[in-house]
Amino acid sequence: MKKYFVLFFAIAALSSCGSNTSIVNSWRDPDVTITQEHFKKVLVVALVKDEASRRITENRIAASNPVFKTSYQYLNATSQLTQEQKLKILQDENFDGVVSMRLVSKEKEVNYVPGTYTGMYYGGFDGMYTGMYGYGFGNWYGMYSPAFYDPGYYQETTSYMVETNVFSLKQNKLIWTGTTESQYVTDLGQTVDAIMQAVVKEMRKDGSLPPN
């Protein structure tokens, strides 16, 4: 059990605190927690069409702890097999758990960022005209000439909704699922780390994992 706790804590430590990823919703089996399963060998499955993205995602998670194994190492040559046959392969390889990630949706949103005015602070009529600057145009111009206006612009933001599932192979059922939303994605590996951090935080919150 302790080994499994270390596994998830190691994943969470990979992520930065300033993540743009958050939990949208989650569910756990009320009759079982992840800690009760005592997972010793967990298959990592990234359900994406692009093979490179699949391997980056699976490798990123598997690198956090030797308990995790990538699915492409075990299931790449099994495309012609039935689900029952694939399940038997995992059982024969002594897998007792599966963690899967699936891209649910990708949405683009365009927002307008208003312009900004930069210059000297205008502190009121008295402060401006009765102080050291005097009344002349030259002083006024010298005071405000550095000011400028930065025009507004439109910014496109892409949001990724990712579903993470945890299955028990011993009981052959889903025991935890959660959906995360990630914005301003620039690096796939860092986003995977952030998703796992959000997942671990939610698992601690709902009792699937012990609190810190």
From TrEMBL:
<keyword id="KW-0732">Signal</keyword>
<protein>
    <recommendedName>
        <fullName>DUF4136 domain-containing protein</fullName>
    </recommendedName>
</protein>
<feature type="signal peptide">
    <location>
        <begin position="1"/>
        <end position="21"/>
    </location>
</feature>
